[in-house]
Amino acid sequence: MTTHTEAEIASQPDCWRRAVSETPADALPRRGERVAVIGCGTSWFVAQAYAVLRERAGHGATDAFAASEFPSGRPYDRVLALTRSGTTTEVLEALEALRKAGTRTTAITASPGTPVMTAADEIVMLDFADERSVVQTRFATTQLALLRAHLGEDLTGAVADAERAVSAPLPARTLAAEQFTFLGRGWSYGLALEAGLKMREACRAWTESYPAMEYRHGPISIAGPNRITWMLGESPRGLREEVEATGGSFLESSLDPMAELITVQRVAVARAHAQGLNPDEPLHLTRSVILPS
């Protein structure tokens, strides 16, 4: 029986196409604005990826923060909040404080009729990418597809890569490996963080995530037989050889890093099934963290 998570993972190419075709003209950060992006968990990692992409595209200074760590008093033209549920306590508290300070805010959400609808000045609704699973997959990548398109990227190749990723055979060594280290460079470092989180949430795997060039500065000591170093994006010269010299496996592909994340999601689900875990309902997690007032 297909789980909600599996169906949602498979739907990502269609979600990305729709997000690109419906990119709003005015609600998202304007070129030249000084912007902060906030979120919790997966949304924080998407925020990190977008911040790098926005600056790289020349749209203006962009910072990313966990919502609970947003630095009050720092001036921004706009704060972009990412929240699938629209109910996350830390995001709502940050938006309330920003309204009192007079800072313009936009929220991307999948959930109409939730508190974020009135907490933010502008709303981008991606309810078609909402999920029944607790684990975020398609909402995370769909909002990043939307943001990439808004920056002027042509996502035709990324969508084609996603089509391949949802159906390609999974690397056999990923299904029984003892440990995973995910690496990224630039914007794909945020995706490496998200890849590690997906594996921890869905199948309780031992995972770590690092900027690729930092991996040599200590973390490579964990590499070895039955352990995988998984690169999202193009790897630094010589790193594969260094990992393989430890007896570890090094994985990378030519896929867009966002599409490669789909492969990681599928591995997490496959490993969850092998362990008798339900990837729709990870242990100790709920759809939204709502703290007592």
Task: Report, as a whole number of angstroms, the end-to-end distance.
Answer: 40 Å
- Give the strand order of the largest sheet, numbering strands 1, 2, ... along the chain: 2-1-3-4-5
Residue windows where pLDDT falls under 50 for at least 5 positions: none
And the CATH topology of the largest domain?
Rossmann fold
Main beta sheet = 5 strands, parallel
Overall pLDDT metric: 95
Counting DSSP E segments of at least 2 residues, the number of strands comes to: 9
CATH class of the largest domain: Alpha Beta
User: In DSSP terms, counting alpha (H) and pi (I) runs of 4 or more, how many helices?
Assistant: 10
**CATH superfamily membership of the largest domain:** Glucose-6-phosphate isomerase like protein, domain 1
Element pattern in H and E:
HHEHEEHEHEHHEHEEHEH
> What is the annotated CATH architecture of the largest domain?
3-Layer(aba) Sandwich
Approximate strand percentage: 15-25%
Q: What global shape is seen?
A: globular
Fraction of helical residues = 25-40%
Structural class: alpha/beta
Q: Rg from C-alpha positions?
A: 19 Å
What's the number of domains?
A: 2
